[in-house]
Amino acid sequence: MVVSLLEKVRALNPIVANVANGVTIDQVANAQNAIGASPIMSNAPEEAEEIVTIAQAITINIGSLWAPQIQEMMALMTAAYQQQKPIVLDPVAVGSLAYRQQIIEQLLILDTPTLIRGNAGEIAYFAGIDWQANGIDAGHGNSNPVIIAKAAANRLHTIILLTGPTDIITDGQRVTLISNGTSLFQTHVGSGDMLSGLCGAFVAVHPADPYQAAIEAAATFAVAGELVATAMETPLPGTFYPQLIDYLFHITPAKVANTVQLSEVPTHE
Amino acid sequence: MVVSLLEKVRALNPIVANVANGVTIDQVANAQNAIGASPIMSNAPEEAEEIVTIAQAITINIGSLWAPQIQEMMALMTAAYQQQKPIVLDPVAVGSLAYRQQIIEQLLILDTPTLIRGNAGEIAYFAGIDWQANGIDAGHGNSNPVIIAKAAANRLHTIILLTGPTDIITDGQRVTLISNGTSLFQTHVGSGDMLSGLCGAFVAVHPADPYQAAIEAAATFAVAGELVATAMETPLPGTFYPQLIDYLFHITPAKVANTVQLSEVPTHE
Amino acid sequence: MVVSLLEKVRALNPIVANVANGVTIDQVANAQNAIGASPIMSNAPEEAEEIVTIAQAITINIGSLWAPQIQEMMALMTAAYQQQKPIVLDPVAVGSLAYRQQIIEQLLILDTPTLIRGNAGEIAYFAGIDWQANGIDAGHGNSNPVIIAKAAANRLHTIILLTGPTDIITDGQRVTLISNGTSLFQTHVGSGDMLSGLCGAFVAVHPADPYQAAIEAAATFAVAGELVATAMETPLPGTFYPQLIDYLFHITPAKVANTVQLSEVPTHE
């Protein structure tokens, strides 16, 4: 695998505007900063248009939903579609809550985000496949996650990054699997949100190919998490997080390329 | 002491819905996750009813109060009372601020929370006892904290967990004291909020006996904090927090039972 | 340099009320607590007046702006001016966003804050000097930061703390430079916000001389950051933050005085 976008993020220092989950907003900002991007957060629809103007990408996270934030999401996304800036959507708990499904449908009416990052329970919602999501957690179901991801990508005509023990990136046709990572991603709240934030940083510097941006963001994050966890005597979620930020700060393209366990699923499988 | 609920939290992985303090929302989510629960946060009254439906307990924290959040608290608590889900209330700074007293009185009109966790300055308010609270800190007063806790429990007909150098759990009759802990709980902002969050996790798996749930939550947290602080060469609040999350992740019932310094105050004392 | 206010903060344990940046609110609270102050956060205009009454200083941060927060800022600042409590303003990204400039102008109509802490891109806005700010980052420009800081102080008749590789404190006439610090302040999101929070703690105990309070806050923070970074085998932003909180907790006036590299710019330079 050639990792080319990481250096581009560091060289271009793109501004990524975030409507963040209040729970993990600090983690997202610090992960974006560590990788080389410049985060900005806003909750004011009044500044949405100019925020999008100065930003190279936006990320939308519905994790701690409240009404004024929805207006901000609508305003930022509308401006981003108009200005053709890429949008990463993180649909936290959409598989478990009808209200969040309603909000997501409102957001999808505007247009389709460039990339959606979620766990199996969240992506199954977009695929229209039955799944027992468990709040913010993936939950369980009988379908193959690859089929879920492809179905969601095909229904929405977008790129899907379905994260779990194996990360799945698909545009509905092509499917890339990344099997790095650590179980600490499940035990540390904020892991998924940070990865969505990193997707924003990578797609910011390569908006023409969000499939590749998603692959590199997922690979970088999974490799960083795996190597941090492996180096810990006992993998534990509290001290994991600051070390993960450290690792994102100094990770190199060569380290990602040499460590990533990536495979492509044949298109007609 | 028999510690039975910790394993139950890990086995059942209950969803705890939180209206959180913006300051410490990340800490609460990660503490709940580390102990084995699944946190979900919401600020949208529109999803209160279904959030309560998927949750096994809710926690309400008034630490960074704003008007839309109050509507969410009302909506979540109303749904929780209807669905008979346990509620943990953390009345941050209620001893210092008349507006927060007014909000708390509005919340109490709905019904009585299952458990209230606060410091002496906060619980003294519910007891109707004079006390000089100091913002978010306990402050100082002349009354015995055990008397304050019992008075509050008796006035409200609920379980009180009054935290301080000694933690006091009471239903107005029975009183349990836990003398573990660390002074770092005072120097790290978020300690009380995390414990309230853990109370939500423990009461979620044992709603029939919130007195026992409060004892086990307080014992688990106090033992974890004490053992982390004791193991530090110099106890310091910044590196304490990630290690505390680590410890909550791997603490065992046996460790709690063997370390806890617990005593019961005779009822007619 | 005589460092006298640090011990005063620890002795008096002042309450500092914050309208915080949602991204870094946890960091600000913990930094204030570590240094010896007692933070309180609020977003409810209804409690602004009594919050100011119990507080010795307030800090206002516009980093994650949303409309209801602006009302809270107005209410807190109005009460603070009436009660003559010092105000520290952190104008995050004001150099990049016209909407934030509009909000800042609304806030300045009330009266002038005691102290404004920002990077070159933010302070250049107040100075009316051209500068290419980059979102939350300083960006770049051709003017000398000392000239920018003095111009801002003179236009607003207030104290300016312009932070960067060299921190500049000025009242428009006197200029103090502090050249301690670490590049990790740039790679850790929240560094500037924490320093603004510390300014609140220092000015709370010495409201008669905000120039001196700003110098001591900046010196304490820069020395702490520098010594933490120097002690790290490889300076990295994730593990830097918890250690910085540790250091703020145990830093002594003697350590600050012995480490600070401070110079005064002659007035007629």
Automatic annotation (TrEMBL), chains A, B, C:
Gene3D superfamilies recorded: 3.40.1190.20
Record pathway: Cofactor biosynthesis; thiamine diphosphate biosynthesis; 4-methyl-5-(2-phosphoethyl)-thiazole from 5-(2-hydroxyethyl)-4-methylthiazole: step 1/1
Annotated residues for binding of substrate: 41, 190
Broad enzyme group: transferase
UniProt-annotated binding residues for ATP: 117, 163
Molecular function via GO: kinase activity
Reactions mediated catalytically: 5-(2-hydroxyethyl)-4-methylthiazole + ATP = 4-methyl-5-(2-phosphooxyethyl)-thiazole + ADP + H(+)
Protein's job: Catalyzes the phosphorylation of the hydroxyl group of 4-methyl-5-beta-hydroxyethylthiazole (THZ).
Family: Belongs to the Thz kinase family.
UniProt protein name: Hydroxyethylthiazole kinase
Organism of origin: Latilactobacillus curvatus (Lactobacillus curvatus)
Phylogenetic classification of the source organism: Bacteria, Bacillati, Bacillota, Bacilli, Lactobacillales
